[in-house]
């Protein structure tokens, strides 16, 4: 069928409400409620048309003889043995069922997470062959599960759209409603968005977990293909075919969930827009409070500017008192202004002082060597402490002085070893109040031992 035929036959596929549309819905409901038989007569049709005319206060309605030709294309048929009786076609029932399911979607009160888990779950060891994978998740076998998820998302979107409309209606209510009642109604509706947001998050987690498990199954077929290529060349072609089929199934399901993610993104945007309504409610309360405050101020001004007389309440001649709010204009200007153009910056090339450079490099080299010597003595002191279990600070400093001839090195090593005792719980320091003098140096210190 071409697109042109869709346009030309649209009125036959979906007749307008008073050209048979309402009639088909009424016949469907009466048959379902067993008010009329499945095969009905023209008398029952005329009664339904009269009911439609009365219910919608119509002056006239198209009679049965004028609309039956269009309805006999797709919606009605005559009984083969009793031509005065008619029945609804499967197409007519499907169209009405589609409208009913759109308005009364059975998935509105059903968690999306449960639908995903019921339709897309792989248990450990459940799938071992490609036939089992095709029976469970093949393109044909999984159409029902896909439709369940799609219908569920559509119901979820419709539900949130209705809730969003309810929030707008609450915010448009008259001022006579108290803030408490508005908050209560707003909370009941807004709770839906929170519940649905949590449901969507859990459903996405279940979906991601399923795709990960399905990818593991595909990898299993790939590893089997590799093993057969090494050890069993007879079955390698079948293993390759199984892996390709598994890959096609995974790609199909992944593309389906990509479209699901797009729909979920739209639904999440609806939830985010609903959170903006909470801000509008806060602004509405702020505006009401400001208005009441202004009314109180006006009431106080009226009481202060009025007096009671035998003839009634009289206001002063200056009521309402008004004054213009003003602020003196201040002229800001710079006190000083430099009219001369700025002087250009001049770059001066400074000649290199080779003597100074050489001297500084020598100082740096000397300091680096000094630090290396200190580190070597610290490592040596730690080795002595590890091997002998104790270390005498005065003996250590005497040894350093005799070899390095530098008091600052001896002092730095002693300080580093003292700090070492603070960083390690199994090392402690013993200070005896006995003065020890270093040989050949005018320096005295307490007798100190580091023990382990």
TrEMBL record:
Keyword line: Coiled coil
Ranges in a coiled coil: 146-177
Name of this chain's protein: DUF3375 domain-containing protein
Organism name: Flavobacterium supellecticarium
